[in-house]
Every structure is written in structure tokens, then in C-alpha cells.
Amino acid sequence: MPHEVRLTLWIVSAVLVFAGLAFWIIYPRVKHRLSQENYKRFDYDVIARLVKNNDYYLINSFTFETGSTPLVIDHLIGGDKYLYVVIDYFIPGTLEVDPRLKYAMVYRKGNEKLEMLSPYEMVRAAIERLSTLSGIPSEYIVGIALINDDAVVLGNAHPSADLYLSTPHQIGKIIRSYEKRDVKPFVSSQLWQAIQDLHAIKVQTNPENK
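Above: the chain's sequence. Below: its structure in C-alpha cell form.
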């Protein structure tokens, strides 16, 4: 094999190896950054498919006041038997959470710690407020904190109450398990009216998000 050909092959091989190493080092960081910036869009797409495939009702970005802090329900899903309150979260590391405590802790790289209001606490408050607004008993409302797939969770992820931490790939399973329960379904007209009433409240408080 001529020297020029061997040299060319060696250069091409070196470039490919270097590119592979660079991709292996950089890609996880880029993927993490993109996930953090676009997780709400990804969650929305998953929820939209779930609702469409099961003929559920859906209200996105439902906001109301609770005390001095606005509370946003990212997705409000009306199933046949239950109403599902879903709030999106991006956890940049490990989440240590206890459903009995008001605050949770996020551990990031470099031993950085961040205290946050527990997702359970936010979802629980949303259920209580929503039950008051809609007249639907809280036992027919399921709360789900939707977290990114690569988040690590320490603690009890599934308390005895109807509160869950879930990834986008698990939420369909949770909802299907509730819809299979042996309980009386909502009367369709009543559920539709409750959803319409909630949508009217959403429009009154956020007219730009009809």
C-alpha cells in the first residue's frame, strides 16, 4: 500500500476517533441542556397523545391563586372515572423527597444542594383548590408530579394517598390503572360541564391562554 494512502487512512481514523471521543464527552451535557430547556414541550406532547388515544378531556396551563403564590396546573386531564392534576418539574440531579414533609432537597453535581417546595405539597394544594372550584370530591382527583426521565429519586415515590411522582413514560400506566378501578364513572355530561366551568375560570384569570 502506498505511503500516501496509509497516511490518509491514518488521518481519517484519527479524526473519527477524536470525533467519537468528543461526542461521548459533549453529548450528555448537550442532551441535558436541551432536555432542561424543552421538557415542558416534551411533557405536553406525551400528554396530548395520551389524551387523544383515550378520548379524555384536557386543559393546559390552568392557573389560580393560592395564598400569595400563583399555582399552575400544567395539565388537567379528565378521564372517565377520575380527574388528573399534572404539574411538570425538571429535576437537575437527585431529588430527596418525603410526602410527609413540606420541602424536598435536590442534590446537584459538585455537592450543590437546593431546597424546594415538595412536588407533593404543590400537587396536594392544587387538588384541594381544584376540588373547591369544581365541586368534584378530592377522592376522585389524582395528583401527579411529572419529572424528567433521568432524574434520580430518593424516598417514597408512591405514598398511600393519590399522589405520584412519575416520568412521562410512566404516566399512562398510572392513569390506566385508575381508569380500570371498579368505581362508578362520571356522568359524561357532568364531567363535560365541570371541565367547561374550569376552562371558563382559566380564561377569566388568563385571557391570553384560551
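Residues 22-34 have pLDDT under 50 and may be disordered.
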